[in-house]
Amino acid sequence: MKINTLKSYGFRTDKAMTTWIQLFRSFNKIRAKESIYIQSFDLTMNQFQVLEVLYHRGDLSVGAITKLTMGTPGNVTVVVRNLKRDGFISVIPHSKDKRTSMLSITPKGKDVIEKLFPEHAKNLESYFEVLSDDEMDTLFNLLRKLQKSH
User: Fold this and answer.
1) Under CATH, which number does the domain 13-148 receive?
2) Does the predicted TM-score (pTM) go above 0.70?
3) Which residues of 123-143 are buried (b: 16+ CB within 10 A; e: fewer)?
């Protein structure tokens, strides 16, 4: 009988890898639950992200949306095209740069976000209710430190 043994890459490396796995699993679990909720509004997660950023930040260029949603330019372009086709966003000329256009959320887009977002926010709160306020502050600060380090 062969016993499976995990290869060690050193204590600190092993700890980093197992921490990453926990972070990734937590993200995927929350993302999967929210994707189901968002799909109930006939939106993809990427469409939701674009609508959400336009709703909360105002009119933006495709480049700014790409940066804020951490998407790829090609993917955001497809998402934007589909949102325009479905009447959720519109294109407006940039007032200072004729080479660039701005995207704006339409009344139809606002309507869906205003229906969807309050429950989305409650869902996010519920995923973290296992943590105390101090633990959530610590987690936020540690993740921010990690994000800013690279």
Assistant:
1) 1.10.10.10
2) yes
3) eeeeeeeeeeeeeeeeeeeee
